Amino acid sequence: MRLARKSIPQVVFASVLTAVLAACSTAQPSTQAPASPPAAAQGAPAPGQPGAAPPGAPKVIFDTDFNELNDDSQALFLLMQAGVDVLGVTTVSGNTWASEGAAYALRQLELQGRPNIPVFEGASDPLFGSRMDQLPAESALYGTDLSYLGAWSHPRPPSYQRLPKPPYGGYAKAPKAEGSAVDFIVDQIKKHPHEITLFVLGPATNVALAVKKNPEIVPLVKQVIYMGGAFDVPGNQGPAAEFNVWFDPEAARIAFTTPFPDQLAIPLDVTDTVFYGKAEYDRVTAGENTPITQEFKDLQGPKFAKDPNSRDHLWDVLTAAVFLQPGLITAAEMRRVQVDTQYGVDYGRTLGYDPAHAPAGTQQVRIVQRIDVPKFYDLFVQELTKPLAR
Ligand SMILES: [Ca+2]
Asked: How far is residue 302's CA from residue 197's CA, in Å, rounded to a whole number?
């Protein structure tokens, strides 16, 4: 059995992080120049080029545990359809392995005619390493619900081009971008100071690595938007933790306690109040076919045909929606946030303190508690059903 995580002294954590950062800075030495490097690997395409956003469009980096037509995927659709300048997609293991996320993101971007948006394969394991083999013990000790394990439910694929099952419509023609996801985040923030909103829609591993490796970027980030945490509601991965934070609690702790100029969180407190069912599916698929609506029909149609009462949450989609329309937020509170990283029943629990009575080292995060659901769905349907933004 592995060393119990609570017995890992801080110095070990520091050395682990140092080793990870060293690997990060030297990762992926390209021994062979790609015949045709991804056009956008150095940043967003120039205006007028395929995949270019309108001049002046807000800039985002999309950090994600991407899957096919899941909440991450729909959040990306929403941002791009609304004309946001997506500088790049960086993947992390969570719902999927980082390699799977890269394959799915490349394919989804290709389907939307946006193959020039670079996709970087990021961290495959949490800062403290994989816990796959200790999950049964974790469940027995702490009551962790093992019904959903994301990437840890199946073996790590050998590469983003060799998944157990090809992506929807096959593998994308474009390769993933060369280089490190962490370095891409750092370089883009330095290139566009005070302009980039960083979407953190999976475990925060890439972001934690970026701010530890290059802390000078912290004041240059415009805003960080997380899907993550469960503040005044139960967790969805065991009694207390939300999945993204549970997957890499140490990374979430680093991210939330970093003094970014502006942090906004979409936790389970709000996502648990928004349901997606057949009525919403019918609105998305009612009109003209586009690659997006066709994918909804192909991938969600069978589920609703079998069970018209099926419904689910949209988690990450809410981050994109409130970014596009902040007025959708009907209730929110400013809290100072900490993450419990003691390896116990509360491992990965997010704690939101009253700013007047908060522990030292915590940072202010705006916690969204409710949104205007009908207006949210109006935006969702409007953007996802219009002709593809190119
Ligand atoms: Ca996600």
From this structure: 36
